[in-house]
Amino acid sequence: MAQGSSDGSTGDGRLRRIARELVRFGAVGGAGLLVNLAVFNFVRHVTDLPVVRASVIATVVAIVFNYVGFRYFAYRERDKSGRTRELTLFLLFSAAGLVIENGLLFLATYGFGWDGRLQSNVFKFLGIGVATLFRFWSYRTWVFRAIPVREAVAGAESVLAAEARQPQPTQQVS
């Protein structure tokens, strides 16, 4: 039988929640990956911007796309108080991910001279992969935090208690 954890859930239940979270994170991240690569290749095709600048533009567009997806899909049940704090941390960790992602592309392009279209896409993709591992950890740990069970129960109990104190309307029979 599974042991209960400090948040009152079983080990199996916790694993299922993490698996669902990974699937939702992956769905948003997969869509964000497509946005990132599409914008990257579009900017490279229609402008003469250097590869890393085109990549940074694509990453910023994907960050905006991902925030909406994470907040309203992947982490919709997470604590919604403190949106300013949430957005600030999201942007901070996203900027770190941007540096990881584009640092790898920069190293490949300017360090090794691998700047062909295919090479750029391969290293852009690899950079996104490494940055995604960092982003998953940081977003779930710091940005979209779970509401502690005690706090959630106390909040629900206070709502129920307030409703119980409200006078109940009486029905009049005519």
Question: What is the topological layout?
Answer:
Layout: H1 11-46, H2 51-74, H3 83-111, H4 117-143, H5 149-165
Summarize this structure as a short list of keywords or feature phrases.
174 residues; mainly alpha; elongated
Task: Explain what you see.
With 174 residues, the protein is mostly helical. It is 76% helix and 0% strand. Residues 1-8 have low confidence and may be disordered.
User: Biggest β-sheet, characterized?
Assistant: none
Count, helices: 5
Q: End-to-end distance, in Å?
A: 58 Å
Report helical residue fraction: over 70%
The helix-and-strand class reads mainly alpha
Element-level helix/strand string: HHHHH
The overall pLDDT average reads: 85
Residue windows where pLDDT falls under 50 for at least 5 positions: 1-8
Task: Give a count of the beta strands, DSSP E runs of length 2 or more.
Answer: 0
Report the principal-axis shape.
elongated
Radius of gyration: 22 Å
How big a fraction of the residues is strand? under 5%
